[in-house]
Task: inverse folding
């Protein structure tokens, strides 16, 4: 089963944000000042946030806090540092590590969470220097995925990603990790616990890959069956917490979990909807992307993300109210590039416009379809845009002459196409309809020619 890295709900976390390459040098604070600033009262009030100076990265830090809360931790204190480059040994530098240790002790933190990936060496050195456990951004995201995985497939994918992350970070812990024997024939280094763990993990990784490959084959078979009947798929993609599941429910009444927590949706959901042209499409709700999404997750969730690869149209759902919407767009496109789907037709949807002023909404005109899934604004415009972008099973306008005795054909044309003209002549119904080519083709025998 996947490994829970943040432990029980309510575990106290010290948040550490680090950025690199900024001009100027941020003066270091004394450890005593950091201890005093980070101290919380006995009633567990809001922790003091220790930032060297006002930063334009507050939105990034808000996202980091939300990740931590989504993992079930309570924020005990926060620290941030800007450096010209990363320290290869500790990421932060020795002076800042001492300060961090003091803050961790005074805030009674159970673990320190870094908003940055740590190398195996950095992780080991920080764990030795701090009075609490240490995890990095990737471990945090993997833990959230483990919490939200509900299906067997999702659990397999999370476990594979965790093990692939863990494998290069296995390190020996001195003599205690060695299995040394005594007596004749048992002298020598023997097999270390590290080697045993590595081999066991490698075996499990191979097993998980085989199981997920079987899942992928089943999905491929299901997809081929769907493709035997030409029903195109439209996939919702976007940054985590952009409102994809709320939009999915608004369009399908599908009852998918809607949550402000990040990565509430892991397992893809498919539901049929009808467009204004009356043709049917399958709408897919997919996992949200995020800044610096761990590559192991993109690889492990390949079977799930196949729905994105196979979709005819991508609907990129964006949070219009976010100050970082352009950065979030770039991050989503980065992952779409990894999936090699940037060439697909893509509809930009600016969601949550109910949180904006009329002036702010006016400034976004022409940059996408403005919607609010929550209060159901702009949904008809979105469905019309999807209709326009679909090239598979195109909409055709044709004239038919159907005997009234052919009730099944009349019902099918009226249900699956838009009737623009209709007149009766004897027992014949003359009609002009606009509908999907696949539907009209089934009734080509009733098509009117110039002679009838």
Result:
């Amino acid at each position: 089963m996947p490994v829970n890295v943040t432990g029980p709900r309510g575990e106290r976390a010290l948040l550490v944000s680090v950025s690199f390459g900024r001009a100027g040098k941020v003066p270091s604070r004394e450890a005593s000042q950091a201890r005093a600033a980070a101290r919380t009262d006995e009633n567990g009030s809001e922790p003091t946030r220790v930032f060297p100076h006002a930063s334009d990265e507050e939105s990034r830090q808000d996202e980091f806090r939300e990740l931590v809360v989504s993992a079930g931790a309570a924020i005990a204190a926060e620290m941030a540092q800007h450096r010209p480059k990363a320290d290869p040994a500790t990421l932060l530098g020795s002076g800042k590590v001492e300060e961090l240790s003091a803050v961790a002790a005074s805030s009674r933190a159970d673990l320190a969470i870094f908003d940055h990936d740590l190398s195996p060496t950095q992780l080991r050195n920080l764990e030795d220097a701090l009075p609490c456990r240490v995890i990095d951004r990737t471990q945090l995201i993997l833990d959230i995925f483990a919490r939200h995985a509900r299906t067997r497939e999702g659990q397999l994918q999370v476990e594979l990603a965790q093990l692939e992350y863990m494998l290069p970070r296995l390190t020996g812990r001195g003599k205690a990790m060695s299995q040394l024997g005594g007596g004749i024939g048992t002298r020598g280094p023997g097999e270390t616990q590290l080697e045993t763990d590595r081999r066991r993990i490698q075996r499990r990784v191979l097993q998980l890959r085989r199981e997920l490959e079987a899942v992928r084959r089943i999905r491929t078979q299901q997809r081929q069956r769907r493709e035997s009947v030409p029903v195109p798929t439209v996939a919702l993609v976007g940054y985590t917490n952009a409102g994809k599941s709320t939009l999915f429910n608004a369009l399908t009444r599908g009852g998918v979990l809607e949550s402000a927590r990040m990565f509430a949706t892991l397992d893809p959901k498919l539901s049929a909807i009808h467009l204004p042209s009356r043709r049917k499409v399958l709408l897919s709700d997919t996992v949200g992307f995020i800044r610096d999404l761990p590559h192991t997750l993109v690889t492990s969730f390949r079977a799930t993300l196949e729905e994105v690869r196979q979709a005819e149209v991508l609907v990129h759902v964006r949070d219009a109210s976010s100050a970082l919407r352009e950065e979030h767009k770039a991050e989503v496109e980065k992952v779409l590039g990894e999936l090699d789907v940037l060439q697909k037709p893509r509809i930009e949807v600016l969601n949550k416009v109910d949180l904006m002023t009329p002036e702010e909404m006016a400034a976004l005109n022409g940059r996408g379809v403005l919607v609010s899934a929550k209060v159901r604004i702009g949904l008809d415009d979105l469905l019309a845009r999807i209709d326009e972008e679909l090239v598979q099973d195109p909409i055709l306008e044709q004239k038919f002459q159907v005997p009234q005795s052919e009730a099944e054909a009349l019902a099918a044309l009226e249900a699956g196409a838009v009737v623009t003209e209709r007149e009766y002549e004897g027992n014949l119904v003359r009609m002009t309809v606009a509908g999907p080519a696949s539907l009209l083709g089934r009734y080509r025998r009733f098509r009117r020619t110039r002679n009838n």
